[in-house]
Predict the 3D structure of the following.
Amino acid sequence: MYSGYNYKVLKINLSNETTEIENITPTFVRKFLGGNGFGVKLLYDAIKPETDPLSEENSVVIAVGPANGTIMPGAAMTAFMTKSPLTGLFIDSYMGGHFATEIKNAGYDAILISGKLSKPKFLVIENDTVNFCDAQDLWGLETSKTQQKIKERLQNTEFQVACIGPAGENLVKYASIISDTRAAGRGGLGAVFGSKKLKAIAIRGDRDIYVAQPARVLEYVQKAFEEMKKHPGLGKNVPLFGSTGSIDGNNSLGILGTRNWQREVFDDAWMISGNNLLKRGLRVGHKSCASCMARSAIFFKANEGEYSGTISRGPEYETLYSYGSVLENNNPDSIIAADRLSDELGIDTMSTGLVIAWVMECFEKGILTSRDTDGLEVTFGKHEILLDMIKKIAYRDGIGDVLAEGTRIASRIIGKGSEDFAIHVKGLELAGHTARGLKGMGLGYAVATRGGSHQDIRPEVERSGKLDRQVIEGKSEHVMKSERMCTIGDSLILCRRHSEPYFGPYLSEKYVEVINILTGFDLDLEELNMIADRIYTLERMFNCREGITRKDDILPPRFMREPIPDGPSKGMYMKMEELNVMLDEFYSLRGWDLKTGIPTEAKMRTLGIN
């Protein structure tokens, strides 16, 4: 038996309120590693093709990996996976904090939730015991109040609670799951909880966690800590700024999504930058997740106008983009307040911001007016409407009922050409990294199993100039290697804020060493690449089973037709012929059929996937 695992999956059937334990084998853990790998395999086997994501036939997997619960830097992430109500495809979303440690301490590697409750309840998991508790008095509460009341009821603050807010209850298709102030934000996992009438999960355990080589793990962590302290990002900028420093960097390159991506330079970027947040004294503290050396959870407090006094953990870069530059909103206090409100209501800030940006462009083009929004003038730069729009979406109030479906569906409902500026890939609204100014990111978005996510492919290699961002040569291999790194990181599970700057942008012997000393595996880099390819190809097969083919590996029309109009990246866009060349190369490297984008039978056999 390998170390780092409990060899148990807790299976919970909500419909009949029963549980069972499924034992997993050493062969299984070596093939799928943990986290993301466990989740996609369990989910692929658990649900049938064409399952309605909001039906009781859908399932949710919550999984951890061999690093979780150890002192390995960044080993705090919990993987949540389901069939997304937003995209209709596989979705995995990751949450920091301390929830993963308690899953591991309770004795599980994964939790598989199926069925539907007859009335709102929350689960209490304590080691071998699972209780189904009434949550009717919690239904309608915001996330912080929900967590507080559950801990008061249990009379034990050691429980970690993951819950949904009103957005999840109202089946907003990009509702999130919140634990403490951390979010599994993308793809509508909160809506799936809501459809199952599952308000929350509280978990704790007291089982010991064992690693294969404790002395080497301790030595490795001590060395890593000393090296990370000297790292300019991890040791200095991240504890000070979190990810907010990326606003200035991306804007200076002319690749900051602005005005619903009509532009990629925000003239007022300095006002929402990390530097200005610090200069104005908005930073009021920070907090660490389990095993965190980066101390990157920065708290900000608004201190002006109607937002004064609001404290939020964040905003991170992605929220400064989605509630800031992409709306042409230069008011950082409003972004702090919107970030806090989104966490309380349990809604994804990225999708919400892009939906609102789409509405603003509809106003700009005369497709929508204030008559459609209960008198709100939803125009670019108008921060005053932001909180009202978030509430409308979370409660499906008025036009919020349409917007709660996501940009893809909302643009189809409204029509009038608005589909052309709906910024999503496969239904998932785009993250804050350009698809025009970074050609590798463009390909990465197009083929990502999640859709418009920056967590399948990372921007830093191109953004730093290590690869020429304007050329397509070498980008297919770069994307595949970046996907491998992300896949293994999400299976261990390690926070990318630690692993990417310390281990590098691709899989390396550092990953091999960490896995072997944690688990007792004797794998090499070749086998690790094979594990990554097995997991990612199974994600692709999940999506192909839902009808995804090459025709769907495409970018929003704006990025394929409209060159960046001004700034340092002026003139850049993704030509169809460029994307096709990269897709051919990418499919060849992956062993996927060139015409369909479906993994070949030969590749499946090589990877050991039935």
Summary: The radius of gyration is 22 Å. The chain has a mean pLDDT of 96. The CA atoms of residues 430 and 452 lie 4 Å apart. The chain has three domains: 8-204, 231-425, 463-492+524-607.
